[in-house]
């Protein structure tokens, strides 16, 4: 699935989800104990979609830019210096190849390679 976000902001999306949840709770349609991660996800604009596996960031920018803040928690990022208007099928193929070569951990640090530095150790 390819999703395009026009006039979208993740902070607004999260606030809207919280408001919907609060209203359902206030109306007695939702129990307090039912409010969990799945509940929040079900109230986001992307409810029913899978979280992205890969996010391609063009123009070399190393930031999320208020984009899918909830949904990208375990997404793999690919950053390219190519500008969006110049991004073509070859660039997409390269991003997909890079993604295919990764070992996804979904937050599990146990799978970290023994020779990989810990985040606090830096990279040289």
Automatic annotation (TrEMBL):
Keywords: Transferase. Coiled coil: none annotated. One of its GO terms (biological process) is polyprenol biosynthetic process. One of its GO terms (molecular function) is ditrans,polycis-polyprenyl diphosphate synthase [(2E,6E)-farnesyl diphosphate specific] activity. InterPro entries: UPP_synth-like, UPP_synth-like_CS, UPP_synth-like_sf. Its cofactor is Mg(2+). This is Di-trans,poly-cis-decaprenylcistransferase. It comes from marine sediment metagenome.
């Amino acid at each position: 699935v390819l999703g395009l976000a026009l006039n979208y902001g993740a902070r607004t999306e999260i606030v809207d989800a919280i408001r919907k949840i609060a209203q359902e709770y206030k109306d007695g349609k939702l129990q307090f104990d039912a409010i969990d991660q799945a509940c929040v996800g079900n109230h986001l604009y992307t409810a029913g979609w899978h979280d992205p596996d890969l996010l391609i960031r063009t123009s070399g920018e190393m930031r999320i830019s208020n984009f899918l803040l909830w949904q990208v928690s375990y997404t793999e990022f690919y950053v390219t210096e190519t500008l969006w208007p110049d991004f073509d099928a070859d660039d997409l193929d390269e991003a997909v190849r890079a993604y295919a070569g990764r070992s996804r951990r979904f937050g599990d640090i146990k799978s970290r390679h023994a020779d990989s530095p810990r985040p606090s150790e830096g990279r040289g």
